[in-house]
């Protein structure tokens, strides 16, 4: 593992891993301090259908552990049997003088069968099932993390559009005043018809831009409705400008991703499952040993079925070794080893992708912070320019074209500033997702606990 991320300051010395609840809690969206976002995020856990499907897959994988463990124990069965028999009168062993060739057989018997796990096949199967269940828990946590992150990103983009709509509405009111002024000046003979036409063009253009913002806003609103599991036509969010506080999300050290990211832990657990599959394949080289027992009561009359003379029992053992299978076991073992190497590569690739995600969003936050500072300066300069142009126009020094140009520049820069702020929040959400959110090895998924998830470790 590298000692630190390229896009952050050099870290301190390596230290013992500790819980990071104080930095990234399980409800990481609370870091933004937006009650409405918190309420929406809570609905994802309750109503999102994708999350429910992932939960079902996780529970099914956990049930498979019990299926595998059952092979440790013998199989027991018991049941009654009734039959009516007709003997052939011409068979060679028919007793002389016998006239009753029809009789009944009543039986009550039990059976037991057990294959002792001498070669570790059952043990490896349980190990594989447990690793797969833990991987499924990681998948569930990853689905939950992705859904929460998607909801937060959609929410902040919607609020960013609300900010732009507010800017456009404010600008539209100002443009309406400018249009009224131009008409007054035209009526007084101070301005010409061109000034009025330009002012009206600016007013109509800004109005159209404000309407156009509604298209993207409606789409984000519908996306949020789907994420919280309600029909889009029944859900609405009142307009409100983006006012949340951008939190500081420490990236920590690259090795911490092994503890935080559920997809990395899932890949590591699938690596362990593939390793167990090798043991299962190797166990096939050894003989299958089966111990069996049977016993019960058998009689030709139901009245004396449960008497001591009707008792019978048997014990037995068998061993079966495959001598020739045309290389099947060898091929299956090679296949298991090859699939293990696939999981090794997949695990390492998941780590590289995790590092890339973090680096990408650290870089985005750093660069967007610089852009936000530059854009804020541009907005301030544009506002001063518009104020000066308005004074010049009202004083009759210049034409309305100068005011129109200054208005366009100011609105463009203000919308760019709002867009940068929205992108910073989106990058922050994506960084939290890249770091694994509030997921830890001790809390693999928001579901009832089953086998504990093993912390992912470098191989």
Q: Percent range for helical residues?
A: 55-70%
Number of domains: 2
Beta-strand segment tally: 4
Q: What's the CATH H-level homologous superfamily of the largest domain? A: Outer membrane efflux proteins (OEP)
Distance between the termini: 11 Å
- Shape assignment: elongated
Order of helices and strands: HHEEHHHHEEHH
The first-level CATH class of the largest domain is given as Mainly Alpha
Please state the average pLDDT score: 86
Specify the biggest β-sheet: 4 strands, antiparallel
Low-confidence stretches: 17-25, 439-459
Q: Describe the strand arrangement of the main beta sheet, using strand numbers.
A: 1-2-3-4
What's the architecture of the largest domain in CATH terms?
Answer: Up-down Bundle
The helix count comes to 8
> In what range is the share of β-strand residues?
5-15%
Rg, Å, rounded: 37 Å
The assigned structural class equals alpha+beta
Kindly report the CATH topology of the largest domain.
Answer: Outer membrane efflux proteins (OEP)
């Amino acid at each position: 593992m590298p000692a630190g991320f390229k896009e952050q300051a050099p870290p301190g010395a390596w230290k013992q891993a500790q819980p990071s609840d104080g930095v990234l809690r399980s409800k990481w969206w609370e870091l933004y301090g937006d009650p409405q976002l918190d309420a929406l995020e809570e609905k994802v856990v309750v109503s999102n259908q994708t999350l429910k499907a992932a939960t079902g897959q996780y529970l099914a994988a956990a049930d498979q552990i019990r299926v595998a463990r059952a092979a440790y124990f013998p199989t027991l069965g018991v049941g009654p049997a009734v039959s009516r028999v007709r003997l052939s009168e011409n068979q060679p062993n028919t007793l002389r003088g016998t006239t009753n060739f029809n009789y009944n057989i009543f039986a009550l018997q039990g059976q037991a069968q057990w294959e002792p796990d001498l070669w570790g096949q059952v043990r490896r199967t349980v190990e594989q099932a447990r690793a797969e269940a833990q991987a499924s828990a990681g998948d569930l946590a990853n689905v939950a993390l992705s859904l929460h992150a998607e909801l937060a990103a959609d929410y902040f983009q919607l609020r960013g559009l609300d900010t732009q709509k507010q800017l456009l509405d404010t600008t539209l009111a100002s443009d309406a005043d400018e249009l009224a002024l131009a008409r007054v000046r035209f009526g007084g003979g101070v301005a010409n018809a061109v000034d009025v036409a330009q002012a009206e063009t600016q007013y109509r253009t800004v109005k159209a831009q404000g309407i156009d913002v509604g298209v993207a806003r409606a789409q984000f609103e519908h996306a949020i409705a789907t994420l919280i599991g309600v029909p889009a036509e029944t859900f609405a969010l009142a307009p409100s400008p983006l006012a949340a506080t951008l939190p500081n999300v420490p990236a920590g050290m690259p090795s911490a991703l092994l503890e935080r990211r559920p997809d990395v832990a899932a890949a590591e657990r699938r690596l362990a499952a593939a390793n167990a599959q090798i043991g299962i394949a190797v166990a096939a080289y050894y003989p299958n040993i089966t111990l069996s027992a049977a016993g019960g009561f058998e009689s030709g009359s139901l009245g004396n079925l449960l008497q001591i003379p009707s008792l019978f029992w048997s014990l037995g053992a068998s061993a079966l070794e495959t001598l020739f299978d045309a290389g099947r076991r060898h091929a299956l073992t090679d296949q298991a080893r090859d699939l293990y190497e696939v999981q090794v590569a997949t695990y390492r690739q998941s780590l590289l992708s995790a590092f890339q995600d973090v680096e990408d969003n650290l870089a985005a936050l750093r660069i967007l912070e610089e852009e936000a500072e530059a854009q804020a300066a541009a907005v301030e300069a544009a506002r001063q320019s518009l104020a000066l142009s308005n004074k010049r126009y009202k004083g009759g020094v210049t034409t309305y074209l100068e005011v129109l140009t200054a208005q366009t520049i100011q609105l463009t820069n203000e919308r760019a500033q709002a867009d940068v702020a929205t992108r910073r929040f989106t990058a922050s959400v994506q960084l939290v997702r890249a770091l694994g959110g509030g997921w830890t090895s001790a809390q693999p998924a928001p579901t009832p606990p089953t086998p504990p998830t093993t912390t992912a470790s470098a191989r």
